[in-house]
Every structure is written in structure tokens, then in C-alpha cells.
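Researcher: I need the complex structure. Ligand is adenosine-5'-triphosphate. Inputs:
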Amino acid sequence: MDEGIGAAAPFAHVPPSIHAVQLRDLWLRLGREVILRGVTLDVPTGEGVTLLGENGAGKTTLLRLLSSGLRPTRGEGRVMGFDLRDGRAVRDHVHLMPVDGGLYPDLTGAENLEFALKMHGQRGDVVRALRRVGLERAATRRVRFLSAGMRKRLALARAHLLARPLTLVDEPFANLDDAGRALTLDLLEDLTAGGVTLVIAAHEPHLARRVASRALRLAGGQVKEA
Ligand SMILES: Nc1ncnc2c1ncn2[C@@H]1O[C@H](COP(=O)(O)OP(=O)(O)OP(=O)(O)O)[C@@H](O)[C@H]1O
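Model: Output:
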């Protein structure tokens, strides 16, 4: 039995939405490049999705759009019932774990987690979270001195502490050893068991699909069932 981090917040204020993601003919242009070309997609709440696609297909871009880091050029989108253009509401309900972890390099491991909790007005057991990912010794070390795999573990601990209803994870298995991959699967499983909807961009479908069984492929700017 896994030791839970025990911080999953009740999201009683989340409006009932049977869909975690609803996109309608969504287009996105970045500079001269059109990355998304009319994406239409429904992801029911609680249904885990593995997002596949070649390098440069647009997976990270789509995750950034779903977390309101980018605005659609055309089309409509809602996440957890909120319009994608409503950045504040989206940020309150969606967590993106970027491929590099998106951590603050000059803060320690513990400070990164404490700061994330504070930003979201949440409480959580940071010491326990660090222990859960085997990073007790990183509590007082600045992130800039951690290895890529350690940063990944720390970012996972943060995603787990925050447990946003829609959690987007970009390449969670990259830079991890076997133990790290097993731990990642455990933590992601915990999230889904707690009702979190996961979208995982990954190049390892055999791993990602163990926790997010529906597979989608992004190619030519469009999303299709894989
Ligand atoms: N800020 C930007 N401005 C212009 N083009 C961008 C920007 N960010 C990404 N792109 C382009 O968008 C396309 C999709 O990139 P993205 O990072 O989303 O792909 P990906 O599927 O996540 O790739 P990978 O598997 O390599 O991580 C690429 O052609 C990339 O060059």
C-alpha cells in the first residue's frame, strides 16, 4: 500500500462538468507555424488520456493551451467547465507539470513545494511529500543543484500535493531510472484514484497507458484516437 501524501484538496467549488476537456475546432498558430488545425476533443472527467505524437507534433503546445499558457487562435475550448480564455479559473483547476519540471531553481526542494501550496491556498505535508518521492535530502538543497531525475521527482511531488482536478503531465518518464518510473506510475495512479483526470504526453505508451488508458495521437495538427 502506498503512503499517500495526503493533501488532495476537496474541490467542492468545481462546477459539475461531465467533461474535463471539451475542444471544438480549435486552431493555434505560433509565429508562422500553425500547430493545431481544428482539434475537436471530449475527455470525460476521470478518463485518463495518453497523448502520443512525434517530436514537434504539438503535444507540449496542446498541454500549454489546456493550462491557459497559450490562447487559441480560433475555436472554443473548456476545461473542467471553464472557458480556456478564463486564465484565472483555468489555473485554479488545472496543473501542468512541464517537461523540465517548471521549478524555481534558487529555491530548495521544500521551498518549491511550500510555495506551490501557498500560491493555491492549500495545505499539505511537504516533509511527507519529499519522503514519498525519495527526496528527503533535497529538502534543503536548491533545485539548481539537483539532477534532472531528482527534479522530475520533485515536480511529481508537487503535482501530487496540488492534486488539481485536471493534471497535465509532459513526459513524466523522461530522465528517470527504473525505480523512478515505477514511483511515477504509483503517484499518477494515486492521482487517478483520487478522481484527478490525467492527460499525459509521453513517448512511452506502454507505461503511460497503464494509468491513462485512452490513447490519442497528435499528427498534422489534428488529434485522433490511437
Ligand atoms: N514559442 C514558440 N514559437 C513558435 N513555434 C513554437 C513555439 N513553441 C513551440 N513551437 C513549435 O511548435 C511545434 C510543436 O512543438 P511542441 O513542443 O508542442 O512539440 P511536442 O510534440 O511536444 O514535441 P516533443 O515530443 O519533441 O516534446 C514545433 O514545430 C515547435 O517548433
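Model: Summary of the prediction. The domain at 19-225 is CATH 3.40.50.300 (Rossmann fold).
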